[in-house]
User: What shape does this take?
Amino acid sequence: MVYDIEMLKSFYANFPKRVDAVRSYIGRPMTLAEKILYAHLYDENGIRPYKRGEDYVNFRPDRVAMQDATAQMALLQFMNAGKEKSAVPATVHCDHLIQANIGAKADIETATSGNREVYDFLKSVSDKYGIGFWKPGAGIIHQVVLENYAFPGGMMVGTDSHTPNAGGLGMVAIGVGGADAVDVMTGMEWELKMPKLIGVKLTGTLNGWASAKDVILKLAGILTVKGGTNAIIEYFGPGASSLSATGKATICNMGAEVGATTSLFPFDANMATYLRATGRDSIAAWAEAIAEYLEADMDVRANPDEFYDRVIVINLSELEPHINGPFTPDAATPISEFAAKVKANDWPRKMEVGLIGSCTNSSYQDLSRAASIARQASEDKIPVAASLIINPGSEQIRYTAGRDGIIGDFEKIGATIMANACGPCIGQWKRHTDDNTRKNSIVTSFNRNFAKRADGNPNTHAFVASPELTLALTIAGDLCFNPLTDTLKTEDGREVKLREPEGTDFPPNGFDVEDNGYLAPSGKNVDVVIAPDSSRLQVLQPFTPWDGNDLLQMPLLLKAEGKCTTDHISMAGPWLRFRGHLENISDNMLMGAVNAFNGKTNSVLNQLNNAYETVSAVAKQYKAKGISSIVVAEENYGEGSSREHAAMEPRFLNVKVILAKSFARIHETNLKKQGMLALTFADKEDYKKVREEDRISIVGLKDFVPDKPLTAILYHADGTEDSFAVEHTYNELQIKWFKAGSALNTNKY
Assistant: This one.
């Protein structure tokens, strides 16, 4: 089925004209990312050669996607915007609030009952404002978007950091906070710094155990978790066209792990085949008719160094399967070197659980390749040493995989089939273990592996690999097992080597489904009710505007040491149930961040009583006395999920400033949208000057203008002082957000 067909028809009719107009104006060949970005300028008459990495640009995306955890806050904000309907097609997907525990049927029933208040809110507010609603169990947002909404050349924002998954169908799809989504849904301009461009040339073809997942695992090792910040990764070359559409989506999905704004592939025959296989023949035909506009110009492909800010070449024919981790998704190791690394680092060698699924790797192709390994284990009677959990990507995939025997292949070797939902990938895993603090190892086909993310255990060493390699290691139960070279013992004592995985991009008999879980908006006049005493939902109150004064003598709330992701700032797992209630979820603020002064989490000095208490408890006491506070952090602060709660919670608890060595892109924008000051050290060594009992002033705000540093003054407990410059990236509009108290307060709607 083709949704929003009139919008799509208009898009493909106008896209070539828009690209031609831009190419004529800038007078040079264009990359694919540039074509899509410039074709989506909010003001079509505002064409000019924007400077990458410097100029802020206003865009008009084609659609919005929201998952249930982030949709709550986004739609609570949209309700305050005074609009009768979303200005662009938008959808809500119920995939985050389902806990993986017993199995699909029981877990969906539990989630439906336990989250009824939230689901009813999301369903009713979607119905009221013309938003499509995908029920619990319908599937993971990014797989459902790929199957139903993504289209070559389009531009989309989504309230989830892995929205770039849609780049597998040639779409510029960008993860954002809820306030950004509100901009788009109200028909207003959506602002983004013009990204730099990283070109990745793929040559050769994959073979053997290597998969599309290994492309991005290797690239993560090259770029690191912040190497793609404020950049779009654009793939091209002969190897790109050899990859399936879902393989491309896997690569684009995990581009979020290197901080990329988004990633995308050029339109090709594999994309057209996928569109037709998922019932979108007309989109395939429209895209084929303008195919030359849906790839980088020939001169760009011939001379990439002249047009991209950086070019990386990966030969797929030589690509070795990789395993990344633990604790960070950019710690990349080829399988041939992994066993030695396990031993050298004394990582727990026993592999206890294998988890296959997530928005990254839950397509039919992924499941079919992994199932071929499961079949061999069953046929050769190879004992399976570790537990196995499977999360299909959508109800369409689950139903079709069940029909074709793939689900049965997994069940024969003892797998538990969980709901078509995120589950363990975002901390929604009720892990059955004897000790959830014990040091142990798991392997997943997910995208992230931060400490405590999957099961809440800081000592779980989580490793990321392809679905087929995850399954091989699950069978072996040994991190040092290499299926390319090693053998396994059957029940009767024979030595057997696993065959190379085999699978199909598409089901031989086509996709099928009885109920895909979609509910179209009825267009009726719907009442959205939020109970005043609800613990799950809370009507948003506007944040207070800036009072016009410098921020003086703020007590240091926390000096965070090391990695501080949005998981550390606003944990998921059991806290997901409060995503629609800002006051309640603020109790988890920064509870995972490590205090630089005592090495502990959720333990900071309360300057009012000189005692150590939880971060939120101290912040609440400061707020109750009208005291503002400040947080200091290291590199890439806010890495990871797009969750804007990580910005809204400090704002709610009267934290006025985050001063870091550097920020992750989405989180920096989220802070700005909520009226926070996101500042960076002009000299990163100044981080060392911050002491535990400091009171800190930020001065120069009366002359707050773009490109002009502010000044931080540290008042130490011994009576001495330090002062130094702090920088920012605020433009004039963003400074208005700060002064108004938030973007929503600027009356731009």
